[in-house]
Amino acid sequence: MTSVVGGSAIDRLAPISLVELDARAALQTRVDRKYVVPLDALEPLLRQTDPGARVLEIGGARDFAYESVYFDTPDLTSYLGAAHRRRRRFKVRTRTYVDSRQCWMEVKTRGPRGSTVKTRLPHDPDQRGRLTPAGLRFADEVLERAAIPSTGAAPFVPTLVSRYHRTTIHLPGDSRTTIDTGLVWADPVSGVEVALPGFAIVETKTGSTPSSTDRLLWRHRLRPVRISKYGTGMAALHPELPATPWRRVLGRHVPAVASDRLSTPTA
Length: 267
What we know:
Shape: globular
Structural class: alpha+beta
Number of helices: 9
Number of strands: 11
Strand content: 25-35%
């Protein structure tokens, strides 16, 4: 899977290290805005990025492979909470930074005024497809603190895998912009895969104030959309599920995904 983000627009930006990025803009509690941007529009837009922006660079690389495994209860408590826009919804996943083989278990909950709160625990990358007893205890503790009703005895099982490449930009004012390309969703049981061809997902991660990236995208008539890697991927792979929040994205931006849904499972 090769990223299409690059060229002069990214090359011209000064680098920022991961240590400095985390110190300046860790943003574990934040407001997220997501945009679906045609790939051929990326380079012209990136040329207009705030001149003070810097791009995450590690070992000379500015583009990194990610893999996330999402976990849910057998009756899809997490998915249905998002599909029905319940206030106390959550996500549980492992996220692996493939190039460095760093892995975290993450629990995402909702904070005040619609903000996203991400809490995480180091995880063995070789065990990213399962939750350890320590991970399960961690999830229970985070959900309890967030006053989310217990999932009871229902175990968390892997329900979706997403893979993509990410470029991360730090903006003055300490916000982040991430650009995800080459997104592929996979069912961990059947092996069926679907892709998001021709588009990037651009996400801004800020405090309450929109970033310069938000304002740039608005000037080009690109507006935030409801897209969730977990929710949209599950809805694309399982069209029998309720998918009201992502119906517009599925219909407008991912028509190829639906038609490819029944492709031959991968080995």
